Each structure stands twice: as C-alpha cells, then as structure tokens.
Amino acid sequence: MTERTETLLAFDYGEKHIGVAVGQTLTGTANPLETIRVTRASPDWNAISRIVKTWQPNALVVGLPLNMDGTEQKVSRRARRFGNQLLGRYQLPVHLVDERLTTREARDRLACEGRAGSDDHPIAAQIILESWLNEQKSSV
C-alpha cells in the first residue's frame, strides 16, 4: 500500500506579519515562501487565497504561540481564531502546532547562512511545518 503524498501550507501567525511555508509528506520537507502583512488585525486574505490556489494544499498548519510553561498567551487566541478563519474560508483541515522558540531558531538559521536580520517569518513557518511533519513520522 502506498502512502498518498500531501501538500501542506504552514503559517507563523503574528499580529503584524504572517510567515508562510510549503511542504509535503513524501520527503517530510518544508520550504519558506513569503510574508503576508496584517493590517488592523486583518490578514491579507487575497494574498493567502492566491497562495492556497497556487499550492492547492491538502491541509494547513498554524503555529500556536505558547509561553515556555505551555500556557497560552494573548496572541494564542488570535492564532486559534486565524486557524478557524482558514478552516471556514478554505474547508481544509487545520492543525495547530506548538511554535515555542521557532522565531529564535529561524534567526539562528539565517545568521548561520550569513543573512542575519533578514525576514525570519517564512523560516519560522518552515520550522513549524517541519515540526508537524516530524510529529507525523514519529506517530506512525
């Protein structure tokens, strides 16, 4: 029996920017795509729709910001709401993933590549998606 390859989009939700990455289950890899602006608490839905139409994902992954002790913070509710909005707009499964320390790791990766100070949002989304993909592998 062969496993079906699925394409996923991941979102690093923030109050000013949302990083986006794409990945797939066959190789378990993810790549950063772009950063979407959030204006007056509203994401650029046209940009998100364009990305969804381009990549035609099977599911969406949203990073859930948590405190280091695992409790939720103010932006956690907004990330959950964003996930619910994605579900309502695109009728695709939405998975929430603990995103603790992803921004720090994204900045470390950029620094190692000699690109410190570059846009870290899509890299954080890539790390969120890699996390989800690794979780799926280990649960099989």
Short synopsis of the structure:
With 140 residues, the chain is an alpha/beta fold. The chain has helices at residues 45-55, 74-90, 102-112, 121-138; strands at 7-12, 17-24, 29-39, 42-43, 59-64, 94-98. Helices cover 41% and strands 27% of the residues.
Defining key terms:
140 residues; alpha/beta; Nucleotidyltransferase, domain 5; six-stranded mixed β-sheet; 4 helices; 6 strands; globular
What's the structural blueprint in terms of helices and strands?
Blueprint: E1 7-12, E2 17-24, E3 29-39, E4 42-43, H1 45-55, E5 59-64, H2 74-90, E6 94-98, H3 102-112, H4 121-138
Parallel strand pairs: 1-5, 5-6
Antiparallel strand pairs: 1-2, 2-3, 3-4
Structure, explained:
- The chain is α/β, with parallel strands linked by helices.
- The chain has a single domain, classed as Nucleotidyltransferase, domain 5, CATH 3.30.420.
- It is 41% helix and 27% strand.
- The chain has four helices and six strands.
- A six-stranded mixed β-sheet has the order 4-3-2-1-5-6, with helices on both faces.
- It is globular, with a radius of gyration of 14 Å.
- The mean pLDDT is 88.
* Strand order in the sheet with the most strands: 4-3-2-1-5-6
The low-pLDDT segments are: none
| CATH class descriptor name | Alpha Beta
CATH architecture: 2-Layer Sandwich
**How would you classify the helix and strand content by structural class?**
alpha/beta
Distance between the termini: 14 Å
CATH superfamily: YqgF/RNase H-like domain
Q: Any idea what the radius of gyration is?
A: 14 Å
**Residues in helices, as a percent range:** 40-55%
The largest sheet is: 6 strands, mixed
Whole-number mean pLDDT: 88
